[in-house]
Structure prediction request, 132 residues.
Amino acid sequence: MVSKSRHTLEALSAAGRVIAEYPVTSGSQHDPLPIGNWKVTVISPHPVFHYNPDLFWNAPEADEKAKIQPGPNNPVGVVWIGISKEHYGIHGTPEPSLVGHAESHGCVRLTNWDAAELAKIVTVGAPVIFKE
Prediction:
């Protein structure tokens, strides 16, 4: 469960107990967190990032689509946890100092080490709740 107001992600057991809690950045004024109930659709360690400037309100007009290979400068960090809301997910970041401070493009951003730990906890099909 992601709380926009608390800037946290709580991983819950099947019984509803909190088993992990992480600080997050979630959404922005331009790309708000999509409040609602979703599901995990994919867990991709060391993902390729498919940059599409059409999806970013602040992308320069001259930008073209690109593939950014896995590694330390990949914008989604060491893991991508995709959800049933197209183009949205939970992921790491190459800039951990910005978690909880900077705005995202609607996704939920964690430090790489927290994202890697979370990827070991969740499974495809797990419920994902985004709330105010």
Summary: The first helix runs from residue 112 to 121. The radius of gyration is 14 Å. The CA atoms of residues 36 and 70 lie 30 Å apart.
